[in-house]
Design goal:
Elements: E1 3-7, E2 10-14, H1 17-24, H2 29-33, H3 41-52, H4 58-61, H5 71-78, H6 82-85, H7 93-100, H8 107-113, H9 119-126, H10 131-140, E3 145-146, E4 150-151, E5 158-161, H11 170-182, E6 189-192, H12 199-215, E7 222-224, H13 228-234, E8 243-246, H14 251-256, H15 261-274, E9 284-288, H16 292-295, H17 304-317, E10 322-326, H18 338-354, E11 359-362, H19 373-386, E12 390-393, E13 398-399, E14 404-405, H20 409-419, H21 425-433
Parallel strand pairs: 5-6, 5-12, 6-7, 8-9, 9-10, 10-11
Antiparallel strand pairs: 1-2, 3-4, 13-14
Helix pairs in contact: 1-3, 5-17, 7-9, 9-17, 9-18, 10-18, 10-19, 13-15, 17-18, 18-19, 19-20
Length: 456
């Protein structure tokens, strides 16, 4: 069916829901590259007005990618919880927005709602929201996950310690890990992006991480972010904690990554069988990013933000410990400047949280984007207010292996200090026992005799 809205004596018509969603999206370079964005600000407003009048039930009847063509579309429909959806089933998208911003939509209510709303519903309502709306609603969401510690509690901010090295040198990686630990980072995960996907190199790094964790009794989890097939290959010979995979919002995108839902299910069950968690069994770690479907020429005419939110349906199926939107990593072809990166990050965090996911954000940009560290400082502060579950901790904020700019150990300290946030409870207690932080979260002086320094 078509959708239309008359604006100042001009009627704008949108041939289907997919087109309407694309035209209603705040401008970004990726949608322009794909030829999907509105031709003018006026058309965008008309699309948003038309979208506001669409009943939420429509998204269960008109799919942006047909059910028979895409396994993610089938997943979304087949796992939809009608009972959870009932309290909002009579809303239009505009009414849903107003309700989300009301006091009626409190934390418990939003947690109960999550299984009943589809990615397209959430993407649609986000397109009608200002940045402050995205922050206000996300702040009310609480998504808590557990493996060896507890992540996502209100009042806490976790950090992925990212000690990448351009040659996977264990000594260089270990030095970065110790540096991060001494600044209070690492409670989300100590996660290495390997320079190669060699099974043997992955095993070497995993054994090093596990030995470090056990030696110092660190209540956290480790991960080498290898392809899921590599993780399956080495599970019987390496200490695999979290199972990692990049995912997208269309079946074709995931095919380009060499995965499908059945492969992820196999990896999830294999990871569970290892029984390595101590306080919980959330063990999947997914990464996403707006533009991945377009870069793979696999978007099917769907705007990049809606594609991104559809990827969250894949993540939700496997009860992950962590979901990370690497928001500015793909480049300015998809998110051109700091303003677009900030908007996309707030959208991703809001949409993921509303769908019941433990969202973190890699607050980042590539060196050829029209963005700088001041933009990232702004975004870090906004996400901290919005209650993001975790961020990245990269030595000096400069990833020397992936060649992009992210957030540093010092940035995480800043966010925790100015917003009154703490690490995960178990990790916070460990930091105090190690003499690294005090009860108020302040860093303590660490002399050159501290036993962690002897590791390197």
């Amino acid at each position: 069916m078509s959708y239309r809205h008359t604006f100042q004596h001009r009627t704008y018509e949108f041939r289907d829901l997919r087109t309407l969603l694309a035209r209603a999206t705040p401008f970004r370079s990726g949608d322009a590259l794909a030829g999907l964005c509105a031709d003018s600000a006026e058309e965008r407003v008309a699309a948003q007005m038309a979208l506001a009048d669409v009943p939420l039930k429509t998204f269960l009847q008109e799919l942006v990618i047909p059910y028979e063509q895409d396994e993610i579309s089938r997943l979304i429909i087949d796992t939809h919880d009608v009972h959870a959806f009932a309290p909002v089933s009579h809303f239009t998208v505009g009414q849903f927005r107003d309700w989300l911003l009301s006091d009626q939509a409190d934390t418990l209510t939003l947690q109960q709602l999550a299984p009943g709303i589809s990615p397209e519903m959430v993407a649609a309502v986000s397109k009608l929201m200002r940045n402050q709306d995205l922050i206000s609603v996300a702040k009310k969401c609480e998504v808590v996950t557990r493996f060896r510690n507890t992540i996502g509690l209100k009042g806490h901010l976790s950090v992925r310690l990212q000690p990448n090295h351009n040659t996977d040198d264990p000594k260089g990686i270990a030095a970065s890990i110790v540096d991060g630990l001494l600044y209070g980072s690492g409670d989300a995960v100590i996660g290495i992006n390997p320079a190669t996907d060699s099974p043997q190199a992955t095993i070497t790094l995993l054994k090093m991480l596990d030995q470090l964790r056990e030696q110092f009794e660190i209540p956290t989890q480790s991960c080498v972010l290898c392809h899921v097939t590599t993780a399956l290959q080495i599970m019987q010979s390496a200490p695999v904690d979290l199972v990692f995979q990049s995912i997208g919002g269309t079946e074709q995108t995931n095919s380009s990554f060499g995965i499908n839902l059945s492969l992820l299910q196999e990896a999830y069950e294999a990871g569970l069988s290892l029984q390595r968690g101590t306080v919980g069994n959330n063990l999947m770690y997914f990464e996403t990013g707006q533009g991945s479907a377009l870069s793979a020429n696999a978007h099917g005419g769907v705007d990049q933000q809606t594609c991104e939110v559809r990827a969250y349906a894949v993540a939700r199926k496997f009860s992950p410990l962590l979901v990370n939107t690497v928001v500015g990593f793909i480049g300015p072809e998809y998110l051109f400047d700091g303003k677009q990166i900030i908007r996309a990050a707030l959208e991703d965090h809001f949409c993921g949280k509303l769908l019941g996911l433990p969202m973190g954000v890699d607050i980042c940009y590539t060196n050829h984007a029209e963005a700088d560290q001041d933009d990232m400082d702004n975004l870090l502060t906004l996400l901290g207010v919005a209650g993001v579950n975790f961020i990245m901790g990269v030595p000096g904020a400069d990833d020397i292996m992936l060649n992009y700019q992210s957030t540093s150990f010092h940035d995480a300290l800043y966010a925790r200090k100015v917003l009154g946030l703490k690490p995960s409870p178990e990790f916070d207690q460990w930091l105090q026992r190690q003499g690294i932080m005090n009860q108020e979260g302040g860093l303590l002086p660490v002399g050159n005799t501290h036993h962690l320094l002897k590791y390197v």
